[in-house]
Amino acid sequence: MPHPAATRLTRLIAPPYALSSCVRALVTRSTVESPLCDPRDRYNHSPATPLCTIAWFVEGEGELVVPGGQPPAPAPVRAVFAGPQTQPTTSWNPGPVRLFMVMFYPQALQAVSGIDMAAWVDRWAPLDEVLGQQWQPLSDAILGAPDDAARLALLEQFLAPRWQAARPRGAGAAAGDWVRHLAWQAADTAMGRSVRNIERRIKARAGQSMRSLLRLRRAEQSFFDAREQALGGGVNLADVAAQGGYADQAHLSREVREITGHSPGKFLRLLDSEDESYWIYRIWV
């Protein structure tokens, strides 16, 4: 059984205004004060996502659980970068952890860092291997900070001026549907503005095609819609599918399974369950 205290120490934090068009959200989590004794509770199941993530293990460590037939996961490190993920992933904590995690819009991180985002799809690596030595002082400071408020302040101090210099201009730069804004920006700046040039520019900035990004965005909104219906007393998946623009309920079910690894029904049951390993879904949806 999960420890309620551990769940209470998991928080989803909105980014400060200066980073609101760069960072989607921050997550802090600690199981140090109330360790999870059952090894099954120390798994972390995450969905496919177009976002990039940097996770700092202030205390403890995490290990990527790699499906059979793939190369082994890298050795545990204290600062980990994860690129956009096209399928669900699972990690495991050997013991208690204190985690500070930042989720970036991929085109924003690409603008700030200059990394080839397409090269990091479905990959994890030590932070310094991806972002280089420029980010090392921030990483060291976050790992040594006394609390999450101090870590957030350090992140804003480091990132805000860099994002201010790199961010696209215009009314859409700070708000709105980031996927559609990315398409608009690519169309506005791509030489020749041909469909092929626009698609190439989108993939360079976000690591995935516009079709893949819209698919993930549509699924996320459908998760929110289904959750809202569930809280109201019941879910009609056919209605959720129609509202989300799916061809039918079967289409919705296929995409939910590809993104989460579960059918819509099981996914909703997991949200309402006491399975601690699905904590990221629970705080997000």
How would you briefly describe this protein structure?
The protein has 285 residues and is α+β, with helices and mostly antiparallel strands.
Kindly list the characteristics that best describe this protein.
Jelly Rolls; 3 domains; disordered N terminus; Arc Repressor Mutant, subunit A; 9 strands; 3-stranded antiparallel beta sheet
Please outline the helices and strands:
Blueprint: H1 4-8, E1 10-13, E2 23-30, E3 43-46, E4 52-59, E5 63-65, E6 79-82, E7 89-92, E8 98-104, H2 106-113, E9 124-126, H3 127-131, H4 136-144, H5 148-166, H6 178-189, H7 195-206, H8 210-231, H9 237-244, H10 249-260, H11 264-272, H12 279-284
Antiparallel strand pairs: 1-2, 2-8, 3-7, 4-6, 4-8, 5-7, 6-9
Helix pairs in contact: 2-7, 4-5, 6-7, 8-9
What does this structure look like?
- The protein is of the alpha+beta class.
- It folds into 3 domains: 4-166, Jelly Rolls; 171-206, no CATH class; 214-284, Homeodomain-like (Arc Repressor Mutant, subunit A).
- 45% of the residues lie in helices and 16% in strands.
- It contains 12 helices and 9 strands.
- The strands form 2 sheets. A 6-stranded antiparallel sheet has the order 1-2-8-4-6-9.
- Helix 6 (178-189) crosses helix 7.
Strand order of the largest sheet: 1-2-8-4-6-9
Helix content: 40-55%
What's the order of the H and E elements? HEEEEEEEEHEHHHHHHHHHH
For the record, the CATH architecture of the largest domain stands as Sandwich
Number of domains: 3
State the name of the first-level CATH class of the largest domain. Answer: Mainly Beta
Rg, alpha carbons = 19 Å
Question: What's the number of extended β-strand segments?
Answer: 9
Count of helix runs: 12
On the 0 to 100 scale, the average pLDDT is: 83
Shape: globular
Strand content: 15-25%
Regions with little confidence, pLDDT below 50 for 5+ residues: 1-7, 170-176
CATH topology of the largest domain: Jelly Rolls
Largest sheet: 6 strands, antiparallel
> How far is it from the N-terminal to the C-terminal residue, by CA?
21 Å
Determine the structural class based on helices, strands and strand pairing.
alpha+beta
